């Protein structure tokens, strides 16, 4: 279950996730807290529904689609594949830039190395076990690092909490973008399919399916909140310095 949970969460937390959160935080300030809270609630409802339908039936999204309407599942698979290719270009580029920032490696070489590691994992006969362990470990490290940055940046937490329930500004375009970036495309299917692959399917596993689906969104939400606070703290510090 942990593997499926972190696979979904880490699939959502890519370059687009980081860019959206940073840009919208600078654009909206503390009011962005309301958009995050509302998007998390909607994400939970969407993912809970999708995961329950797929995992209880034991059918992957394309298989279930074909039972509804012949050919629909394959059409869905093509759309998800195209979206996956497009978004993963950004993920590979982000990995290359990350290795460049950490180790000084050329970003292009870093991208190739990252892609090679991913290919090796999926070609391994024990890919399932390796994938579960790797995404869980990296997901935990990512959250801890972001927690450290959020604490060091000293964000105005009180102002953020106030805006979470009494926002100074509401932008439904921003909320829709956040929802699409979290449970859109292949992201939701990735975790559900991993549960099916691990044998966790059928009506008798509804409780586990429900818990795992909700926790996946909560992990993603925690990461977004921490990133939001980190950027908000940096922005607040910049404003204070400019006023001085």
Question: What's the short version?
Answer:
The protein is built from eleven helices and no strands.
What does it look like?
There is one protein chain. The chain is an all-alpha fold. The protein has a domain at about 1-60 and about 125-235. Helices cover about 85% and strands about 0% of the residues. It has helices at about 1-10, 15-30, 30-55, 60-70, 70-105, 105-125, 125-150, 155-165, 170-185, 185-195, 205-244. Helix 1 (about 1-10) packs antiparallel against helix 10 (about 185-195), helix 4 (about 60-70) runs antiparallel to helix 5 and helix 5 (about 70-105) packs across helix 6 (about 105-125).
Runs in which pLDDT lies below 50 for 5 or more consecutive residues are: none
What is the N-to-C succession of helices and strands? HHHHHHHHHHH
What structural category arises from helix and sheet content? mainly alpha
How many strand units?
Answer: 0
Helix fraction, binned, reads over 70%
Strand content: under 5%
The main pleated sheet reads as:
none
Mean pLDDT: 83
How many helical stretches?
A: 11
Q: Rounded to an integer, what's the Rg over CA atoms?
A: 19 Å
Overall outline = globular
CA(first)-CA(last) distance? 51 Å
């Amino acid at each position: 279950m942990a593997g499926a949970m972190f696979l979904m969460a880490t699939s959502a937390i890519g370059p687009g996730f980081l860019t959206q959160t940073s840009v919208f935080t600078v654009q909206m300030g503390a009011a962005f807290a309301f958009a995050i809270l509302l998007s998390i609630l909607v994400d939970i409802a969407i993912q809970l529904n999708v995961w329950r339908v797929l995992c209880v039936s034991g059918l992957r999204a394309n298989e279930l689609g074909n039972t509804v309407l012949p050919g629909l599942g394959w059409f869905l698979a093509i759309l998800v594949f195209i979206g996956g290719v497009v978004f993963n270009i950004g993920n590979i580029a982000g990995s290359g830039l990350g290795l460049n920032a950490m180790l000084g490696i050329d970003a292009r070489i870093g991208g190739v190395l990252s892609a090679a590691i991913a290919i090796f994992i999926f070609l391994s006969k024990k890919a399932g076990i390796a994938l579960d362990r790797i995404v869980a470990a990296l997901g935990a490290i990512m959250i801890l690092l972001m927690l450290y940055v959020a604490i060091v940046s000293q964000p105005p937490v009180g102002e953020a909490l106030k805006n979470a329930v009494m926002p100074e500004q509401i932008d439904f375009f921003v909320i829709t973008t956040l929802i699409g970036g979290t449970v859109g495309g292949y992201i939701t299917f990735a975790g559900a399919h991993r549960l099916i692959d691990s044998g966790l399917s059928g009506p008798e596993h509804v409780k586990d399916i429900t818990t795992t689906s909700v926790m996946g969104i909560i992990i993603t939400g925690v990461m977004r909140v921490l990133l939001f606070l980190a950027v908000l703290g940096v922005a607040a510090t910049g404003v204070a310095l400019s006023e001085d």
